Amino acid sequence: MEAAQRFEEKQRLAQLAENKDTLSSRGEELFRDPQTPVGGNRLGDVTLVEFFDYNCPYCRDVASVMAEAEAADPGLRIVYKEFPILGPNSVFAAKAALASERQGKYSEFHQLMMQSSGPADEASVIAAAETAGLDIEQLRIDMKGADIQAQISRNIDLALALRINGTPGFVIGEEILRGAADLATIQSLIDKARNTAIE
């Protein structure tokens, strides 16, 4: 039993070291990519990065946790990484979200998509865009931009480098959290990041 525990601890420490190396080498892209939408306090002292898919039910469940964390912490900066892994409708939704940023409506659109109970298909995405007050014709033009697809490709590459293979995924300080989390876990990691201030 003791040998198994030592092995697990060795594996855990190796994973932490690998995480730290990846976060260090890709930190600029992860935390400060100017093309990535940012919420919360843009000048906050702690950054939480979320990888998500609009068709992921766990991402929708954790959206209320994210809203609570943001409301409870005026120093929290949230970086939104579109990670559409659940099919073509997810890619369509991600492109619409990134294009909505060009019209200054990302936050409104994102919240509407996360509050939706049905699938994120073309009809629901366009309905959310209309409700958010987006110019739909311009949105469709912007969605076709090579830069939008490039952003999604970079996000996917970054997530995979961090071994985030599903949604949601979070990076807070030196911690990578794979899967949904409750408010206490998120706040604990925010506090830890604030205390170590590695960014």
TrEMBL record:
Cited InterPro entries: DSBA-like_thioredoxin_dom, Thioredoxin-like_sf, Thioredoxin_CS, Thioredoxin_domain
Record-linked Pfam families: DSBA
Keyword Signal found: yes
Chain segments carrying region Disordered: 1-37
Protein name: Thioredoxin domain-containing protein
UniProt KW keywords: Disulfide bond, Oxidoreductase, Redox-active center, Signal
MF term (GO), any: disulfide oxidoreductase activity
Residues in Thioredoxin domain copies: 11-195
UniProt-listed PANTHER family: DISULFIDE BOND FORMATION PROTEIN D, GLUTATHIONE S-TRANSFERASE KAPPA
Residue intervals passing through the bilayer: none
KW Coiled coil (keyword) present: no
Feature: compositional bias, Basic and acidic residues: 1-32
